Each structure stands twice: as C-alpha cells, then as structure tokens.
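From the shared-data thread, chain only:
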Amino acid sequence: MQPVFADPKTDFVFKRIFGAESRKPLLIALLNHLLELDDERRILDVQHLTSEQHVDVAELKLSIVDVKCTDATGRRFVVEMQVLKVEGFEKRVVYDASKAYVMQLRNADEYPALCDVVGVTICNFNLWTETDGNGRFKVPMLSRWRMHEQHSGERGLPQVQYAFLELPKYAAGDAPATLIDKWAYFFREAKNLNVVPPALSEKPFRDALEVARTATFSPEEWEAYERAKMAEQDARGALAVARQEGIEQGHKSGLVEGKRDTLLRLLARAGIALSEGERARIRACADASTLDRWIDNVLGAKSASDVIS
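Structure, as tokens:
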C-alpha cells in the first residue's frame, strides 16, 4: 500500500520540498527556525546557487540544497544544507562548507566580497552521544558551532559556521511544542503519518506535508522516489555487510587486519581502483582509527585519493 506522505529525508523528496524555486517560503521558514534568526537577522529571500557555483557531492545520494540568503539588514550569506543518513561523514560536512566558501572566489581581489557560509545538516543518527549524570545529552538536538579563542572563549572567525539537527534526540512524542521540535517531528514521522496531525496543521509544516503527499506525485516522480530509497538501502547494506565481514575477519586475524580487509572490500564494491602504492599503503597501516576514517570516506568517493587522503 502506498504511504500517504513520502519520507522528506530522502534525496528526491527533500529537494522537492526545499529545493524548488516555487517553494522558497518553505526553505526560508526552515532556515530561520534552524538558525534561530528573527527580527533584523531574519532571512527574507534565498537565491538557489547554480551548478557552477557549488560542488555536487553524490555520496549516498546526499540531499544538498545550496542557497545565498539575504537577511533583513541586507547582509548576504551562503547556506549549504544537506541530510546525512549514515554515520561517519563529519569530515565531509566540514569539506562541503569550506568548499562552498572558497567556490565564491574567482581572484584574490574578491576576498572582501566573500559571504559567510553556514553548513546546515540534518542527521538521521546521533553525532554526539555523550550524556551527563542525569542521562541528558551534553549536545542538544539542535546545536550551533563556530570558532572561539581557546583561552578566553572569545568568539571570532565567523566566516564558516555549522548547525546540526540530530533527529534521534527528538523526545517530544506526538506533541511537539517548539518550532524545532515540529521540524524534527516532520522529518522523523512524515512517512508514517496517514493524516496531517494537529501539531503540523499550521504553515509552514502543513505546506511541507502537502508537497510530500504521494498522491501528488506523477508516476515518474514516484519511480524516482523509489529509486532514491533503494539507493540509500543498498549503500547502507553494503557498508553493514562489509563491516560485519571485517569484524568476522578481525576475530580470525586481528582487529587492524580486519579493518584493512573491510576497507579493501568496500573499495572493490565501489569500483575504485588502487595502484600498487595505494594498496601497499593500506596494507602497511597499523592504526585502527585511521583505517576507520578511510572506511568512512569510501561512500561517495570517486578515487582512492578521496579515501586515503
């Protein structure tokens, strides 16, 4: 039976809701809420960046929407927004935001004109799992990150900032009260809903649900949605199988050797060719954390240098 609403975390649906020119108000509302902007700092308009202005990263069908925002004061800044569905991509988030910053630059004379960049990431897993003595997460569901001076705590170098919404930390059940809770509820539960619930009955949440209503999909759009879901499941499955094989191999030949084998299996399945030197470098690596990092780099990599950099 076809669901009433499609999963907004899926690449196709996420872009259908927030990536279309005609649906700018939905994206503006989401960004104002996630970035906690109001009054003179509130975003009034967004301009979707062209393919020449940003770098597409295809790893695990990541949902990426890049926009240049203008707030009520006329200040302009770039938001790179994406959905992560699998653990291990923190470095890619930093890479993407940094890339969005430098891609604005055509020559050295343009340094003063560079816009700040905010990387907004919706995570379908917990990035920060540490809890306090009362069992509460030390990093909240919505977290904001920027540089600060380590001795004084003074904040500075604001050019690249990050915001993360960790969906598994949502704890309000079927009665979300805050705007952030309502967005988390929307992203987590839309695919399981049969009707528009009271908590999401007002704009912009109701409008977002209507865009995700599967009855409005053409046969071609439904097929694209199904393909996006299958691609995500295949990628997650390949990673899980390779990790399990690595664990089993690790029991037989040692932890580090098992991780090496996991990495080599993932590279082979991704169709990434290795030179003799690159293969030798992997075989020579005896650091488990480095091997873990290389394993996480495989999804979306196009060459061995993307993995073992």
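The longest strand covers residues 63-71.
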